[in-house]
Inverse folding.
């Protein structure tokens, strides 16, 4: 039950885009058509689900204050948490590279559809943001971290596909010239975020 | 050379602003602008990180193999962010807690990476430093403008000092709660882009 609650919460209430604005750059740049938005969304879900549990385990057993106590009593007061930024980003960059190579080798069809987005994802704030939120949230086990990653990824995916669908329709509308393109997109996202706020307070 | 240098410094502040024209670094621009204090600390942090990491990467630009350059950039930027974060933790703990993950997210702030890729890797250290600093300032400018609107209309204060007179509240004025919420930040930036494109016609799509 807790897992379902966490899952629903991370999709709708703590939506990466509409509540925290993470991964905005690629969100705005790649949401022109539903097809590409779909690809990037899937890639984000995938990379989040792979990297977040790894970062969780690393943080829990190596970098957190006192996390090294399993090595012996002498290590109990070692606090390496200041290193977490650089470790998280290194893990993310490495995993993205590995995933890219594996996908290219074993699933060329998937690679050609995700291909261009995978390298971009290493610098997507949503991925690093997921790991940093995990650091603040004190999950009790790796299962929770994975569920949180899956939920956040799906939330991001939903948001980008929805925006792409709106933008495809908006191409036929008569928008004031100065507002055309990115300006109206910002306002659209604002209104969508407003709509998403109705989910606030849901808990199962 | 002098005119070129001037352009490097002035361009990012209005004509080629990283947020409203290049659409980079939006995440933090939206999230930390509820209050002036947070916005200002965030801007200063970004100015320092972009400036110094552009400078460092420009110094070593000829020795980085092209294939691994993203990793090298990330390491330099992450190191700078860790320094900023530790300094904030030591001297401004309350603000650091309030900005929470967004300080860490400067690492993936597209402005930093974008300027390194687009400018620092092909230019000498001093212009790169100036370019980084100027882009940071352009970013900070938008942050401050958005934060002024959100704080005045959302909580009636500026830097935590009450601006809207008490008599107005007694006459029935109510703070606009919507401006504190995330969606309003999006709409405000949309409006700023609208105004800028109204002035600079060549940016219109």
């Amino acid at each position: 039950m807790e897992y379902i609650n966490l899952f629903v919460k991370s999709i709708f209430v703590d939506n990466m885009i509409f509540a925290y604005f993470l991964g905005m750059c690629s969100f705005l740049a790649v949401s022109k058509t539903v097809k590409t938005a779909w690809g990037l969304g899937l890639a984000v879900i995938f990379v989040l689900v792979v990297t977040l549990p790894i970062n969780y385990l690393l943080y829990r057993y190596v970098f957190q204050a006192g996390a090294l106590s399993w090595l012996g009593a002498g290590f109990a007061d070692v606090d390496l948490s200041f290193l977490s930024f650089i470790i998280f980003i290194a893990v993310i960059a490495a995993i993205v590279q590995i995933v890219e190579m594996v996908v290219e080798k074993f699933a060329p069809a998937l690679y050609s559809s995700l291909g261009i987005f995978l390298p971009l994802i290493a610098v997507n704030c949503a991925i690093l943001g997921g790991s940093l939120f995990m650091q603040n949230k004190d999950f009790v086990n790796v299962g929770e971290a994975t569920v949180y990653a899956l939920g956040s990824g799906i939330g991001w995916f939903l948001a980008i596909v929805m925006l792409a669908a709106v933008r495809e329709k908006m191409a036929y509308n008569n928008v004031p010239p100065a507002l055309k393109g990115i300006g109206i997109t910002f306002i659209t996202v604002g209104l969508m975020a407003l709509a998403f706020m109705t989910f606030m307070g849901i808990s199962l | 050379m002098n005119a070129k240098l001037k352009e490097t410094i002035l361009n990012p502040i209005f004509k080629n602003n990283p947020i409203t024209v290049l659409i980079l670094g939006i995440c933090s621009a939206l999230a930390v602008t509820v209050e002036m204090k947070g916005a200002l600390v965030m801007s200063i942090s970004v100015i320092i990180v972009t400036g110094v990491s552009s400078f460092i990467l420009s110094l070593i630009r000829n020795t980085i193999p092209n294939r691994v350059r993203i990793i090298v950039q990330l390491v330099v930027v992450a190191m700078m962010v860790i320094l900023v974060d530790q300094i904030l933790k030591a001297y401004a703990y309350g603000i650091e807690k309030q900005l929470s993950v967004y300080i860490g997210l400067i690492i993936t702030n597209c402005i930093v990476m974008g300027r390194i890729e687009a400018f620092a890797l092909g230019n000498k250290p001093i212009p790169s430093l100036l370019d980084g600093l100027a882009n940071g300032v352009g970013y900070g400018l938008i942050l401050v403008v958005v934060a002024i609107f959100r704080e005045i209309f959302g909580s009636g204060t500026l830097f935590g000092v009450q601006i809207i007179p008490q008599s107005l509240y007694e006459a029935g004025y109510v703070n606009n709660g919507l401006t504190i919420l995330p969606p309003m930040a999006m709409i405000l930036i949309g409006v700023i882009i609208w105004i800028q494109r109204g002035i600079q016609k060549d940016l219109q799509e």
